[in-house]
Amino acid sequence: MTGRTTAPAGGNWVVTATPAVAGLATLCAATALSSVLDGVLWMVHLAVAIVVVVGTGVLLRPTRLPSPLVVLGQVLALLCLLVALYTTSGFLVFLPGAESLRDLGTVLGNALGEVQTGVPPVPDSQNMRCLVMVAIGLVAVLVDALAVGAAAPAASGLVLLCVFAVPASLADEMLPLWTFVFGAAAFALLLAVDGQHRHEAWRGRLPGAGQSGSGPAATAVAGLAVVIALLAGTSLTLVGTVGRLPGTGDEIGGGSGGLGIDPITELRGMLNQGASREMFRVRDLPESAYLRAMTLPRYVPDQGWTGGRDMPEGVPARGDLPAQPGDPGDGEVVEVEIEPVTWLDYWLPVYGKPRGMPDVDEAYRYDPERGMVYATRARKSGTYSLRTVLDTPSADTLRRATGPIDVDPVYLEAPGVEDRVADLARGIVAGESNQFDRATALYRYFTDGTQGFTYTTETTNNMSAGALEDFVLNGKKGFCEQYASAMAIMARSVGIPARVALGFTAGYPTGDFQTITSQDAHAWVEVYFPGHGWMTFDPTPLSDGRGVAPPYISGNQADDEEDDPSAAATATTTTTTAAGASASASVAPDAQGQDGATQTSAPTPAWHLITLVAAGLVALLLWALLLFGGVWLSRKTWLRPAVLAALAVLGAVALTLVLALVSWWLAAPVLVAAAVAAPALVRAWRRRERLRAVAALGPNAAGAAWRELVAESVDRGTRVPGTETIRVAARRLVKAHNLDDQGRDGLRAVVGAVERSWYSAHADADPALPRAVDDVRASLHRNAPLALRAKVLPRSVLKPRPPADGDAIG
């Protein structure tokens, strides 16, 4: 022992405060994520993760484990928390195993899908909470290692700055000012704690004040963190397609510095994410139609469909637009108003055959070859008007379509198609005399219900030729990506020019507009007809009414009637009615997924929130009373303990209710653990208060020292009767606990200090008293160590016997 009770007792609060302040700094820095993540529940999950990380470090460091093992223990504790919250296959609920790790990997994979396709701010889903807990939990481990393990809190500022860099690079707007204020204030507090710590060390009041050597380790860890952050920031795109750091390029179409994510990956992520997100509001749309964002002309074996590396120069999208290849330029022009809600991407979706966009941003360009509007970087467009033609030719008209294929030869390429798939395609179209009937035969192969094809999003992402063959011939289960890919490549294999289009289905009506959500993301096929252009064929067997069948496919009219525009309008109006009638599947997109599976979550009861707020407010008031009401609390000896007890109870209630927002399965064990730990916490608080009094060397220092030594004896099973004199009681302690010479000398000094406090005219205690108390306590720990049960359930708290703690003596 150093003999300085001051350090562990009261004056050196900075030693125990540093881990808590480091965790607070991490949480405050993480508030910057509020600009890219909706809601507040993720912050509760994050606070739980940080508490687990910090608490694990606090528990492990007194065991004198090497710092790497402490870090490993913190990571393991974080993993156990993730397993308990986000899987149902953990051993004993929270211990990780092979199956639980696979389940956790699935959750994180789904979160990455949401991250890649989301538009800031992304919804606060279960998957996103898990991802945030992993990322910021690891940041908390690193900050704790720097601030506490390496004793270099200043270096942790670099790590915290990286936390701010992520949302700053992703959000289109400046981060909220309050996030900077919170982060800066918490970091300043961490530096202040560090400064106080160093000041105490300089004054010689801390053990190991002369130790050094943490600087190089802190510098190495901080440097490694910065390098990792920079590499991740320059190579990864997180939310949506915006978010690359400056200097990574803005070329469209993939490759280095190209499109942030693969378009098919974006589509898959929208369909697989749990929560539905509103994307567009469409007004003045006269009939149901697909909203096309982009088209994919190239098929790459084992990779799937791509847009190619480079985009053509195109023409300015603002104003009148040129016709697409094969478009005769006729038809009734309608004007549609499209309001992007959360859409942020390179592409600006359009309907039908665009004729003009009078008020679109000048940054957009139009490619008539591929029929899409795009920009050189991801943008969030305002509401724009689209003049377009929705009329389509009749089936009979398309049957008579002949002439040269005046489009890029890439639309006829079918590389790497398995022979069995090509043979199947030829068999399906055998006997058909024109291109329209051949395309329709392929379409009906997937949709007429006779071949056993079903729609599901629970499929693999394998796009190899073998996977395509297995889907067409064996599995026959998939979602729009597989269906569109299969039909398009089979059409090309029999000489039909085709491409895959990505966009959205019709959505559902909401008041005076049509709502389109992320769950309406879709892929379909477009087939080229000379003299008419690209026509839609959707081979996906959707069963929820969202699919749109053009008049040339619906077959509701005789061929001689289909050339009548009013007849065509009737066919599409029928489709619109069907979509509206099935809107029950889409009216609540947050509660129902694309496959019709209900996803509901019970709202938090009002009593829960009211109790939580009330407990939190009263706890804050009591905390303020402790900080600023010292004079009032000193009037009665029982006031301060009563306030502390009430604060502890209210704190436990508030913590339980906060954790219950995450899961009652988490809150209940924590509440039980808090109840079990309560006696030990009370004993630790009493010890701290007494040792603080001893260190202050005031008039009550000797009495506090004696009461603490008596409590140490009671914890070890030996009580001091109140009728004994202090010298007799001291001899009892020496004999019962087999104190060595150092302990006896210290106890003799304490007894002398107590007697002087009774009879001496000098009120202040002997400066040697803290050293004497330390010597006695050290001798007790050596010669009569406490059992685990005595530490957890101290007798001096659970079974006090009057006079408690020897109050009659001193």
Structural class: alpha+beta
What is Rg? 36 Å
How many DSSP H or I helices? 26
Low-confidence parts: 1-15, 203-219, 232-261, 556-601, 802-810
Question: If strands are numbered along the chain, what order do they take across the biggest sheet?
Answer: 6-10-13-7-1-18-17
Q: How many DSSP E strands?
A: 20
Strand count, sense and barrel status of the largest sheet are: 7 strands, antiparallel
Task: Provide mean pLDDT, rounded.
Answer: 76
* Portion in strands: 5-15%
Which percent range fits the helix content? 40-55%
Distance between the termini: 26 Å
Give the overall silhouette: elongated
Overview of this structure, please?
By secondary structure, this protein is of the alpha+beta class. It is 50% helix and 11% strand. The longest helix is centred in the last third of the chain and has 33 residues, at 664-696.
